[in-house]
Predict the 3D structure of the following.
Amino acid sequence: MTALTIRKADGVLTVQDMGRPGHLAQGLSRGGAMDRLALIEAAALLGAKSPLAAIEMAGAGGQFSVSAPTRIALTGAPMIATLDGAPLRWHASHLVLPEQDLRIGALQAGVHGYLTPAGGLQTPAWLGSRAVHLTIGIGAALTAGQTLPCGEDPAPEAPSRIIQTEARFHGGALRVMDGPQTALFDDKVLEAFYATEFIRGGRGNRQGIQLDADARFTTDHAAGLASDMIGPGDLQMTGDGLPYVLMSECQTMGGYPRVGQIIPADLPRMAQAAPGARLRFRRLTLEQAASSYRDQADLLREAAGRCRNLIRDPAMIADLLSYQLVGGVTAGRELEDD
Amino acid sequence: MSLAPTPQVLPAGVDGFLIRFALRPDPQAMAAAQVMARQLETDTPDGAVEVAPALVSVLLRFDPARVDRDDLARSLAARARAIADRAPDAPDALRRWTIPAAFGGEYGPDLADVADRLGLSQQQAIDQLCNTDLHVLTIGFAPGQPYIGLLPEAWNLPRMADLNPRVPAGAVVVAVRQIVMFGAESATGWRQVACSGFRTFVPDRNPPMPLRAGDAIRYRPVTGDEMQSLSSAADGLGGAVLETLE
């Protein structure tokens, strides 16, 4: 078993995977990664058949080492990363050797970065998932000195890969479909809502994110509503008339009226909007929303198609002379493209 | 009785429908939602992956790769209409929990106020709580946390104007003809009438969240000392007994 040691934790670091669906009837939300696409991209970079458990780094990274040679993927919000002082490309996979010093520093954009070892983190599972669920006390944030078990890298010699990714780290447009309570809002309120530019507020966590605007969006039909099922992406209008976007650790049931739901394809963009980012909503028809659906296998296949071998700039390789540049069958492949 | 509620099948995300029998917690709609949930669990439509009942609605999640969205919506609407048209009673419970609870005094600081509002003695209020045919209506807000009801019409008590900043885990609180049993220390606008050693959510227990919507609930009054000693049970069930009915 390979081990990954946290030498330093600067951001809020938690183990996350795709969560534990199927327990809504018992009041348990799915949980899991805030930016699910980042885990899919990590799996594509590492050639994994399905998303792996990773470290989600909110706000900042930390310092890490491994006990055996293993590839890692760096995905999600781009952060400054170095290996023994040499810069590492983000949205890419890299081989890390024991005794090497992996440092992940400040965010360049976005909120949540992901560090995924090629064998996946193998921390204990609960109800079929290793995802920490902070709100209900399942697991806790990682701290310096902790060592996490990982699966062995099935192919440490595989070349470093890089993935082309949509820049979803600066806010922007989010597509929304109507939900069960959209009709409670007057057309005028909905029109105003879709014409408004929102600012990602300062309050946000794994449960939900507050948005700010000058305008307020309310309905006269909110009083006495029976609570019903809510979920990630729902745009809930709290008492003050501003939207609160429900995220992965949201409750399962709520009584506030909801304007609609951000479609799953755009939820990573919401998760990665940092405080102050500008956001607009675009209303989809039901047909448009339904046709945006992709299952995990589709997303992974599509992400794999965006990967290519990483051509390293020799000027950036600190230990160039240690590479076998001629006649090599392993290290030399790092300089090839496909 | 009022007209049969008109059920609606509404999109709930790209992979879900909400089947809603009313907007507000009307008892007839609650019963219809429970019947619908039971039917979806026993006669599950092709492509469904999850059924989760709320108070007057049921969420059904489906796999869009396995079923046509419009076909599913049509079949759900037909089922819901058939149920609403016959205005059924709530389905019979499949299981019953008997849960020991200590009422009044330090374990139910608002019992006297509740009894007063109902024009009952505290003992009469306890008797009504323990003798009403109660069911888990839905589970939500926290893992395993039940909404139990319905209490007699007179129990349609509003929430308190001021939040009680702290009720303990196991607190049994009442408002709007319903009972909530808190799994963890909480703030609440509901009135605390009792306390039980039953923990609705214990991650390491199997199952961690033992209650299901539709379960019958019966409270058994015990002394504070007995409740305290039952609370120390390792299974976190506080002496609750589960029977299978039928």
